[in-house]
Write a structure and sequence with these properties.
12 strands; Rossmann fold; 4-stranded parallel beta sheet; ABC_Transporter_SBP; ABC_transptr_periplasmic_BD; signal
Length: 294
């Protein structure tokens, strides 16, 4: 039995002890030790990513409300909405009497969530910045919701698939990538953002990876100077290609000359959940196609 498998086996043996203990604790993204007297039974999720992670942790049946845009898995679309990243309906949340609220550092108001905490609601913050943070979040949520067996199993599958993906592209030839996340103002991501890490895993060189902000604003001139060999953005349909089509006006760009303008599935890469590996695989295949055109 490998060390990794042995570790999982030991963790699974400890599951009944953890669940039956008086207190369940996990460390959140704010480095707080969040504890509950027993497994959560009424959960409010305040971001689409948190919703997915809760379902992956085996706690989907315990979620009583979600935020706007929580559309996966399909069951989440049937749940009541209690606001979005701009504003939460605190009265609606309190009326649901949740024993756990799962928030997103980059998407929710700290002031509003601090108010909920002052009113006695337990808040657990998520902020995946590394691939490892995704399975860790699932394990932490599964502890707080009394479903650790599911959390451990799902997390281990993710880690194994990630290792295989890293090995597959470890020797990929480097290719210069510009990932566009918005057009007006023109915005991209740096190497610390999780999509930036996906680009590197696939053998891409993020031409704006060095910038200090996670989602920096840039200029058209900066893109022309960076001379990317691939330009990527997110979208589902041909109508979403307009941002890419706009770059065809600059025939001197290597990406334009090679026809390397690509749409990636938006939800897969944008949400740090189990499905992100599917998004990374798709991106890696895109960059393989782009290499063949240079």
């Amino acid at each position: 039995m490998t060390t990794r498998r042995l570790t999982v086996f030991i963790l699974l043996l400890l599951v009944p002890v953890t669940v039956l203990g008086e207190t369940l604790c996990a460390s959140d993204a704010l480095d707080r030790n969040v504890c509950l007297p027993g497994p959560a039974t009424r959960i409010v999720s305040l971001s689409p990513g948190a919703t997915e992670l809760l379902f992956s942790a085996g706690a989907g049946d315990l979620v009583v409300a979600v935020s706007a845009w929580s559309d996966y898995p399909p069951q989440a679309e049937q749940l009541p909405r209690v606001g979005d990243s701009s504003r939460l309906d605190l009265e609606a949340i309190l009326a649901l009497a949740p024993d756990l609220v799962v928030a997103w550092v980059d998407g929710n108001s700290r002031q509003q969530l601090d108010r909920l905490a002052q009113l006695g609601v337990t808040v657990f913050w998520l902020a995946p910045r590394e691939f490892e943070h995704i399975p860790q979040a699932i394990e932490d949520l599964s502890v707080l919701t009394g479903t650790p067996a599911t959390g451990v199993a799902q997390a281990e599958l993710f880690r194994n698939d990630l290792i295989e993906l890293e090995e597959n592209y470890a020797e990929a030839s480097l290719i210069r990538v510009f990932y566009q996340v918005w057009d007006q103002p023109l915005m991209t991501i740096n190497r610390d953002e999780l999509i930036g890490k996906a680009i590197e895993l696939c053998g891409g060189v993020n031409v704006f990876g060095h910038l200090p902000r996670l989602v920096p604003r840039i200029s058209t001139e900066a893109v022309l100077e960076a001379a990317p060999e691939v330009i990527v953005t997110s979208g589902r349909q041909e109508s979403d290609r307009q941002w890419l089509e706009d770059w065809t006006a600059f025939a001197s760009l290597p990406a334009v000359a090679a026809g390397n303008l690509y749409l990636e599935p938006p939800d897969l890469l944008a949400r740090p959940t189990l499905r992100m590996l599917d998004g990374v695989k798709h991106l890696c295949q895109t960059l393989e196609t782009a290499r063949a055109r240079l």
